[in-house]
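Moderator note: this is an archived Q&A kept for reference. The question asked for a predicted structure of one protein chain; the sequence and the answer are reproduced below.
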Amino acid sequence: MKTSDMRIFFKGLRIYAYHGVMPQEHTVGANFIIDLSIKTDFTKACLDDDLDGTINYADVLQYVKAEMSISSLLLEKVAYRICQRLLKEFPSIEEIDIRLSKENPPMGADCTVCGISMHCNRS
């Protein structure tokens, strides 16, 4: 059997953090939702049932939380940092799709979430 387009993903990862352009966002904070799709070859893990053949979800979460803890004005900057960190820490990652959303953004409108998405690769 041949496998292709292998991905590890997180959907609806909720982290409380302090990002935004308005001063109160850095004091009060908000819930942020992260969806990640990480392309990597985990054929070895499929065959050997060994964690060394894949990427440990707990390690990914640790790095995402670390980057989310650094307050920024823009979600674009936060998502970029997360991708940059994951590509640095995991040489087997080929590409990352990330969606970063803020719940109840303070923008004078009734909006459940707003945010950004980006695609990053090694090249």
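Archived answer notes: The CA atoms of residues 8 and 98 lie 12 Å apart.
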